[in-house]
């Protein structure tokens, strides 16, 4: 109620409440529950009202959730107010005491709170009584070690004393203080198992009323049974009734999803300490994430709005996905039959029973298990399915468990349930590189290559396998062709082909293209020629003829280049020899020796001239080779 209402309004409200109590109704009963896998549930209660007061009881732990999320649907009007008893709290009990800051947790906190009070302190060796003036902290040496200690300063009849607080100190104080502290401790304990709420409505006519609220609950657990011989997929739910009340013919909807849910402490009194500073702002009330983690973000309110409306017939099996998968990622299964479950009991029941046509296949995942075949069932569903572990069984019994991540309506999924012992998958890989285009420009070649990889998987499969499936890793290039049907999912090409005489074989052709730019006559050009000469690259007849000519020229080019290099070396050697002869000639005085040096110089000059001519001739030949190489590719 609003505290600033006039006296007339307050009187009217009191009269309304008294009128409501005069025509109190029977307690509402739980009629619908939306139970989530995220640990949050919405309870819907229905009641036949004859007046304007509805009283209902919920578990004490759900009190704040009721205040935060209660929705009332009354066709005759709105809500006047919702009331309940204010719970006792340690904070309220201690407001006017020395412990207004909270219940002390150690001796120092206790004595600090009792400042000005008379206390008695005693230890094994001493005892003192006086008024607490304060505490002092200091460092003491005990047993050769430094320890932190505190001393309480007391005012007694003889003066001021200090009493060192050591482990085992006893503190005594008045019965009045002890009674206040005991009351606060009692107020902080939650002793009630349930809490009653009194709801006052505007109208007092006879009508049906719905109440719903969201609170924490034990999450339901999902499991599946895949019956291969019967062609059925059954969904089973395990859940507990921890609502504090029996479920009697309750309409139950199972939900999935992970929206955010928060705890809100609205039921306990909240006192905000005030400050003398007029610029201080009041402390905000905080919320924290619920231990349940995530909750139902949006609920299907259509069924709550009209509890008497007929339920839609299941789409298939024993339950229907009412809202299937909505934008909040929530999947709902509405059970067609009402549920009876006593408080504190656990139930396990089938909520979905689908007729399917599972196809059994041998599944090979080369990235995970080299040479091992997995048996897998392929299923398709016309409605969305929640995740869970699948127990796969056939006419002979249990054949394995399969992890299931859930699926949307119309999708297909694979459920690997067993590894085939002694299985052997052979993998053969063949690579081929083809030169497709050669473009010449300014002494450079632009070469386009096509790299093709053919991978073949083959092996003997169990008789129960209808098809053979390989999940081939994506990454080499684009899928060019295969002998089976293909789809790309989760980083693999999933290829499926029929099994013939218990033998499965799948061939996968992948293709990628790349480009190289090389300079004619350079080392990278020589590398391309070497790859072509070794047969690593396939090419057309025209390209082959061109590169054969280039290869022949390259051989001659290398020979001339070696000769040119040798001529350069000899030219330098002759120059060094000529220099040495000239230096020696300057020091020789005898005519006969000078003549020999002059003859040697003449011979060296002749060789230098010939070497110079050879070097120029070979250099011209090299230029001619480069011109010939360019001419080979110039018209391509």
Note down, in words, how this protein is organized.
The strands form seven sheets. Strands 1, 2, 4, 12, 15, 18 and 19 form a seven-stranded mixed β-sheet that branches. The protein has a six-stranded mixed β-sheet with strand order 25-22-21-28-31-30, with no helix packed on it. It has a five-stranded antiparallel β-sheet with strand order 9-8-7-6-10. α7 (523-533) packs across α8 (541-585) and α8 packs antiparallel against α9 (591-634). Helices cover 24% and strands 41% of the residues. The longest helix has 45 residues, at 541-585. It is α+β, with helices and mostly antiparallel strands. The chain contains nine helices and 33 strands.
SSE order and pairing:
Blueprint lengths: L6 H16 L6 E8 L3 E10 L3 E7 L3 H7 L1 E3 L5 E5 L6 H4 L13 H7 L4 E5 L4 E16 L2 E12 L2 E7 L4 E3 L2 H13 L6 E8 L5 E10 L4 E7 L4 E9 L6 E9 L4 E4 L24 E7 L7 H4 L26 E3 L4 E3 L4 E10 L3 E6 L8 E8 L7 E7 L2 E8 L7 E8 L5 E17 L2 E17 L6 E7 L4 E5 L2 E5 L2 E7 L4 E17 L3 H11 L3 E2 L2 H45 L5 H44 L2
Parallel strand pairs: 1-15, 13-23, 21-28, 26-33
Antiparallel strand pairs: 1-2, 2-12, 3-11, 4-12, 5-11, 6-7, 6-10, 7-8, 8-9, 13-14, 14-20, 15-18, 15-19, 16-17, 21-22, 22-25, 23-24, 26-27, 27-32, 28-31, 29-32, 30-31
- Average the pLDDT over all residues and give the rounded result: 80
Largest sheet: 7 strands, mixed
Oligomer: single chain
Number of strands: 33
Q: Roughly what percent helix?
A: 10-25%
Number of helices: 9
> What is the rounded distance between the termini?
93 Å
Spans of 5+ residues with little confidence (pLDDT < 50)? 1-24, 289-317, 321-327
- Helices and strands: which structural class? alpha+beta
What is the global morphology?
A: flat
What proportion of the residues form beta strands (DSSP E)?
Answer: 35-45%
From the alpha-carbon coordinates, what is the Rg to the nearest angstrom? 47 Å
């Amino acid at each position: 109620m609003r505290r600033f209402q006039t006296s007339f309004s307050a009187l009217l409200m009191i009269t309304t409440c008294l009128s409501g109590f005069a025509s109190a109704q029977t307690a509402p009963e739980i009629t619908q529950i939306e139970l989530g896998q995220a640990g949050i549930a919405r309870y819907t209660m229905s009641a036949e009202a004859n007046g304007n007061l509805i009283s209902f009881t919920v578990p004490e732990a759900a009190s704040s959730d009721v205040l935060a999320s209660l929705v009332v649907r009354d066709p005759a009007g709105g809500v006047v107010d919702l009331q309940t008893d204010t719970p006792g709290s340690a904070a309220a009990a201690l407001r006017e005491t020395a412990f207004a800051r909270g219940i002390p947790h150690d001796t120092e906190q206790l004595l600090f709170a009792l400042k000005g009070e008379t206390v008695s302190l005693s230890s094994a060796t001493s005892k003192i009584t006086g008024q607490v003036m304060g505490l002092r902290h200091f460092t003491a040496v005990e047993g050769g070690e430094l320890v932190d200690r505190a001393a309480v300063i007391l005012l007694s009849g003889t003066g001021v004393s200090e009493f060192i607080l050591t482990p085992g100190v006893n503190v005594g104080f008045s019965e009045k203080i002890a009674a206040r502290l005991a009351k606060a401790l009692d107020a902080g304990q939650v002793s009630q198992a349930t809490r009653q709420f009194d709801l006052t409505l505007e109208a007092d006519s006879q009508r049906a009323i719905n109440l719903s609220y969201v609170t924490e609950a034990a999450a339901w657990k999902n499991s599946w049974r895949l019956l291969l011989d019967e062609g059925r997929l059954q969904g089973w739910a395990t859940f507990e009734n921890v609502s504090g009340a029996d479920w009697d013919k309750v309409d139950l909807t199972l939900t999935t999803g992970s929206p955010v849910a928060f705890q809100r402490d609205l039921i306990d009194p909240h006192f905000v300490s005030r400050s003398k500073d007029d610029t201080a702002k009041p402390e905000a009330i905080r919320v924290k994430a619920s231990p349940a983690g995530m909750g139902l973000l949006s609920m299907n309110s259509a069924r709550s709005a009209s509890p008497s409306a007929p339920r839609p017939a299941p789409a298939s099996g024993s339950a229907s996905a009412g809202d299937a998968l909505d934008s909040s990622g929530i999947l709902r299964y509405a059970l067609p039959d009402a549920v009876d479950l006593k408080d504190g009991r656990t139930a396990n029941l089938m909520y979905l029973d689908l007729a399917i046509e599972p196809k059994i296949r041998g599944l090979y995942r080369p990235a995970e298990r080299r040479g091992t075949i997995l048996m897998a069932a392929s299923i398709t569903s016309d409605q969305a399915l929640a995740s869970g572990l699948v127990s796969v069984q056939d006419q002979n019994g249990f054949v394995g468990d399969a992890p299931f991540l859930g699926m949307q309506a119309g999708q297909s999924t694979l459920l690997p349930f067993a590894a085939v012992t002694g299985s052997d998958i052979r993998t053969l890989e063949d690579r081929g590189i083809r030169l497709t285009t050669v473009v010449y420009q300014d002494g450079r070649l632009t070469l386009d290559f096509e790299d093709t990889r053919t991978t073949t998987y083959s092996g003997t499969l169990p008789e129960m396998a209808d098809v053979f499936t390989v999940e081939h890793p994506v990454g080499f290039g684009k899928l060019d062709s295969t002998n089976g049907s293909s789809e790309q999912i989760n980083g693999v090409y999933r290829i499926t082909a029929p099994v013939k005489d218990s033998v499965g074989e799948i061939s996968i052709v992948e293709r990628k293209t790349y480009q190289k730019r090389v300079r004619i006559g350079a080392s990278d050009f020589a590398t391309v020629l070497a790859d072509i000469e070794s047969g690593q690259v396939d090419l057309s007849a025209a390209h082959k003829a061109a590169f054969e000519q280039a290869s022949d020229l390259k051989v001659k080019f290398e020979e001339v280049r070696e000769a040119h290099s040798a001529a350069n070396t000899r030219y330098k050697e002759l120059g060094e020899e000529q220099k040495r002869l000239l230096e020696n000639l300057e020091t020789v005085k005898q005519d006969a020796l000078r003549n020999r040096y002059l003859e040697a110089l003449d011979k060296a000059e002749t060789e230098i001239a010939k070497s110079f001519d050879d070097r120029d001739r070979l250099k011209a030949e090299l230029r001619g080779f480069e011109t010939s190489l360019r001419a080979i590719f110039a018209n391509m």
